[in-house]
Design goal:
Elements (H helix, E strand, L loop, with lengths): L1 E5 L1 H8 L7 E5 L3 H6 L3 E2 L6 E3 L6 E4 L1 E5 L7 E5 L5 H6 L9 E2 L5 E2 L4 H7 L1 E2 L11 H13 L5 E2 L1 H12 L8 H12 L4 H10 L3 H4 L1 H4 L16 H14 L4 H9 L18 H4 L1 H10 L4 H18 L6 H10 L6 H16 L11 H13 L4 H5 L4 H22 L1
Parallel strand pairs: 2-5, 10-11
Antiparallel strand pairs: 1-2, 1-8, 3-4, 4-5, 6-7, 8-9
Helix pairs in contact: 5-7, 5-8, 8-11, 11-12, 11-17, 12-15, 12-17, 14-15, 15-17, 16-20, 17-18, 18-20
Amino acid sequence: MRIYKVGGAVRDRLLGKPVTDIDWVVVGATTEEMLAKGFRPVGVDFPVFLHPKSGEEYALARTERKSGRGYGGFTFHASPEVTLEEDLIRRDLTINAMAEDDQQNLTDPYHGQRDLEARLLRHVSPAFAEDPLRVLRVARFAARYATLGFTVAPETLELMRQLSESDELEALTPERSWKEISRALMEDQPQVFVEVLRACGALKVLMPEVDALFGVPQPPTHHPEIDTGAHTLSVLQQAAIHKQPLTVRWACLLHDLGKGLTPEQEWPRHIAHELKGLKLIKAVNERFKVPRDCQELALLVGEYHTHGHRAHELKPSTLLELLQSFDVFRRPQRFEEFIAACEMDARGRKGLEEKSYPQADYLRGAATAARNVAVQPLLEQGFKGPELGEAIKRERLKALKIYKEKA
């Protein structure tokens, strides 16, 4: 039995990055031997075990063969005869196909260290094209390591293009796709994820609504970058720079989908794109079974982001309707995330990345003014039921009028 540290832990150590999760591969062992040493089995499709003390994952060396469509369409074979090199060749990228023993002696049969130095994301073998999930994974790695200068090797991008042109991407489950998408959006350069998917043709398969934004012009007075797709990428980049949560980043990606529906003869204006985009946002949310908090914020930002930009111009009644739409009195955090998304949208314009966004404080102040309306005096006046609700609304409207006059 020989045990090796493999994959990301080796890659990140060589890059000088913090190592968080450690995966281990065990060569020359049987399931019975692992159980005898106290390892706990957790693998359903192939033998994976948890270490009795550390809880880390140890997998028996295995080979795999394509037997069906999609991410799960593989037959695995694990036995003591499978070599370390045979196990490593089934991995996606050369930089993930290295192993080291307990003395940090490196096993690198597919030149991962060389590709680390060349800053290349390169596939290990032609079998890369058998797993459609790898299209998303490579795009995610590109987003993670873009700041270090990594790019996708041309021949790997070509295999990703072939996968995108086949029907393999459609075999991905919503859950697996969302796991990769959500992780990619939380990387330092999430816009690179979208760029790589677009470069290999996967974006128009997975998210045609986002792909349709590229080449659609906007008024240069408001959008110096002009192209709606380029603007979307810049907004996403700003969300990462400002360390926004996943909910905000997802909303930033989808906020302008309605502009992809504007007839060419109406360009560069996009009348009512906010409402037109809602059906597209719903479609993308449903396609990937997106968590509810992300779904809700994306829809609200899509519908109301231009309200955020025109905050100072809104009538008190419109301001109150906006606050009520967000249920700001019970869910203040969601409104705060809306404000953040609006600010990222404003900053995601060429040359305006550092421009202040006074609308943010104005909207926060409006929410505070409405929230500070006391309910107890109205109860003491005898209001109850629907009448109480109307009385609260009148008082909040009054408070917002005063706020607007003073602001």
